[in-house]
Specification:
The complex is a heterodimer of chains A (348) and B (293). In chain A, 75% of the residues lie in helices and 3% in strands. Chain A is mainly α and 348 residues long. The longest helix of chain A has 28 residues. Chain B is an all-alpha fold. The chains are: A mainly alpha (348), B mainly alpha (293).
Chain lengths: 348, 293
């Protein structure tokens, strides 16, 4: 265990150094922009993995929390509040939302949670799309609070253009999202290694036994919902500030599919799974840019194939258990071959 | 006022029948085999588009198109078993992995439909015209058909599960897959059969739904969401309960749309579901299974 955490620490350190150095080594606008988004999705998927993979709560509302954070920052920004403040308020609001969702499904299990959370996300989407309230009046145009189906824009950004020299202003968003990602990842690593993480493992592996031993499922579920919702809301706010537009598309199914694929391909419940998965799926999406109309199909195939052929994701391929199993399979194969050879000798 | 109320009641009944029809395919796989098929919505639209293609491109008659699409829908359901569910059967996290895999299938199917037919809504050529009037309110014949067929299929499937030998095998598997296997139930064959039936019924539901609304690649998503709500609220594995809940939800939704506006229909529905589940976590008509450790 000590060994493992040391490997983790060294890996994390190397990755952070690489991430800090990378934009100076490859100062491509496109790459830096894509990396910023990648960090944001990594943060979301890490938090989703805490809820889904670690705590075993089949929630599909993670992007709804993301939207809550983003919309809060955007709406406040449009009202003239600094986006820095808005992002943190958005994270707090998302935390409260997460707590509410956690309370709504605390008596449910498995697929029931999936459905309820999916329905909650859909309800928020419908409420935003059909929003025709008239909160902001600009001339003849009337803008609803959430921007309705068109989304909300022109709420500013982190104002790095004023602080940083022109050549480097893009790095502001990059390092903000990197910092948020590191914070979120540290939270995730500590939670998984802590007694809370062990509790989740107990609840996931045998809920009845865990409850029989006096573990309160509700309390720990609420803790993980709250914590991960805060970071997811933070990611939403940073996304809004980076992309500078917040639309209902963040609640759409394609994005849910993308993040789900990131989580599953990387390895459900694994500490490093979300990072690896987000990287792989982002790379795959870059390749699909050649044939954008088949992107959803490609992601679907990736998701299905991953569940069938590597149910524990890419990281599961490297786990000791899998290596043992593969070795055993190879040995069995060798044995059958040997037996076949012996049989053929006997037949002669 | 009484006219308005009658209108609300009738549109509620139509909605309820739509939801019941949409829920059939889902409730047999999820209710009896614990396979939550998230591709259900996509299968609804695939069935509807298949009928469309058969009727327009091949130009066959309405009934042939209907039967052909239902058969092909059944084949898709069986194919989902052969290609995907069979590979997952022995995994420890079977239930969760099926959900994830079928979400993938949903995207594959829906995007394929989108690429072939485009996103523009089409009119379903396989259709039944006509209708009659009650008071001053026109009731289209297809709504009546929807209701009748929905109730008939629901009851037929319930009878199949309760009365036949295969139905008993399905129920045995739903209670304990491993024990059923040890007792000589051909689990794989039953899974293939149930998924095939569910695929065929989904295609039929999709065609009927597209008669009332229009054909579009995402047309199955909302019925699927409602179907999930119905299955959960009524309790899994109870088809008659699902029928009652579907109609109750339809009437509630029509009423909310009439009083509060369309946009609050889903939130109010959710509120009802959440309260209902907190009151009875296993659904209104559900039973609580004993857990063996």
């Amino acid at each position: 265990m000590i060994r493992k955490s040391r490997t983790d620490r060294i890996t994390a350190l190397v990755l952070i150094v690489v991430a800090i150095a990378a934009p100076f080594l490859f100062p491509s606008k496109y790459l830096i922009g894509q990396a910023t988004l990648l960090f944001i999705w990594m943060l979301v998927v890490i938090q989703w993995n805490l809820v889904f993979g670690v705590a075993g709560i089949f929630s599909l509302a993670q992007l709804a929390l993301f939207a809550v954070g983003g919309y809060c920052a955007a709406v406040l920004g449009a009202a003239g509040v600094s986006l820095w403040l808005g992002v943190f308020l958005g994270a707090a609001l998302a935390g409260i939302f997460g707590l509410a969702i956690g309370l709504a499904c605390f008596r449910l299990e498995g697929a029931y949670v999936a459905l309820l959370t999916l329905a909650i996300a859909q309800a928020i989407l419908v409420l935003i799309i059909t929003d025709t309230s008239c909160v902001v009046q600009q001339g003849a145009n009337c803008f609803p609070l959430t921007g309705g189906a068109r989304g909300i824009s022109q709420f500013g950004d982190f104002a790095f253009r004023e602080i940083l020299p022109y050549k480097y202003y893009q790095l502001g968003d990059y390092f903000v999202s990197l910092a948020a990602l590191i914070l979120g990842a540290v939270f995730s690593f500590f939670l998984i290694a802590s007694p809370i993480g062990l509790t989740f493992r107990a609840i996931r592996d045998n809920p009845t036994y865990a409850v029989g031993r006096g573990v309160s499922r509700v309390r720990y579920q609420l803790i993980v919902f709250f914590g991960s919702a805060i970071f997811t809301g933070l990611a939403g706010g940073i996304y809004a500030a980076h992309v500078r537009v917040m639309g209902p598309n963040v609640l759409g199914l394609p994005l849910i599919l993308t993040c789900l694929a990131m989580m599953v391909v990387g390895g459900l419940g694994h500490r490093w799974g979300p990072l690896v998965g987000a990287l792989l799926i982002t790379a795959a999406n870059e390749m699909f840019k050649e044939v954008p109309e088949w992107q959803a199909t490609g992601l679907g195939i990736l998701l299905v194939g991953s569940v069938i052929f590597m149910p524990r994701g890419v990281m599961g391929l490297f786990s000791p258990a899998t290596i043992d199993r593969v070795a055993a399979k190879l040995a069995r194969g060798a044995r059958t071959k040997r037996n076949a050879a012996i049989e053929s000798i006997h037949r002669r | 006022m009484s006219d308005a109320l009658l209108q609300v009641l009738i549109s509620g009944l139509t909605l309820g029948a739509m939801y019941a029809v949409g829920a059939i395919g889902l409730s047999i796989t999820w209710g009896s085999l614990n396979v939550l098929n998230m591709a259900h919505g996509a299968m609804l639209s695939v069935g509807a588009y298949l009928a469309f293609s058969l009727a327009t491109t091949l130009g066959v008659s309405t009934w042939v198109a209907l039967l052909g699409a239902i058969t092909l829908g059944g084949c898709i359901g069986a194919l989902i078993y052969v290609l995907i569910v069979r590979a997952l059967l022995n995994q420890p996290a079977f239930e969760v992995n099926v959900v994830i895999a079928t979400i993938g299938v949903a995207f594959i199917l829906e995007n394929t439909v989108l690429q072939i037919y485009g996103g523009y809504p089409l009119k379903q050529p396989v259709d039944i015209d006509g209708g009659f009037k009650i008071g001053s309110i026109f009731i289209p014949l297809r709504s009546v058909l929807l209701m009748a067929v929905g109730i008939f299929i629901m009851l037929a499937v319930a009878a199949f599960l309760e009365r036949t030998r295969t139905g008993r095998a399905v129920r045995a598997i739903s209670q304990n897959k491993d024990a059923a296997l040890l007792m000589g139930v051909r689990v794989g064959r039953v899974f293939a059969l149930v998924l095939g039936i569910s695929g065929a019924l989904s295609a039929a539901s999709g065609i009927m739904l597209s008669m009332i609304t229009t054909l579009s690649p995402g047309m199955g998503y909302d019925p699927m969401l409602k179907a999930l709500i119905i299955c959960v609220l009524s309790g899994l594995g109870n088809l008659r309960g699902a029928l009652i809940v579907a109609i109750a939800i339809g009437i509630l939704e029509a009423f909310v749309q009439f009083t509060l506006g369309v946009r609050f229909a889903l939130p109010v529905l959710l509120l009802v579901v959440i309260v209902g589940l907190i009151w009875k976590p296993t659904g209104i008509f559900g039973r609580r299974d004993a857990v063996r450790l």
